[in-house]
Amino acid sequence: MDPYAFVQSRVIKDGDKWAMAPENPPEDMRTWTGWSAFIPAPVDIVKKKGDAVRIAFRADYIPVEDGTVILAGYNDLEKIVTALRG
Hints:
Blueprint: E1 6-14, E2 17-20, E3 32-39, H1 43-51, E4 60-64, E5 67-71, H2 74-85
Antiparallel strand pairs: 1-2, 1-3, 3-5, 4-5
Helix pairs in contact: 1-2
């Protein structure tokens, strides 16, 4: 993923947390598609800064290799990414 780029991502629910869906999920695996952005920073830092941004709906933060993926509505994601880029 390109840092800070907005993309449509497929996610799955893993217990009560979101996770990135495998590239070719089995047909019976339930997935959701939504706007996301990869941030090249640890989830605790990204979440702390992202939670400080006033948005309309909840954002979710998924720890991934080399950073964090933020899931949010497009307008909310734009506000969070703008704040994170400084």
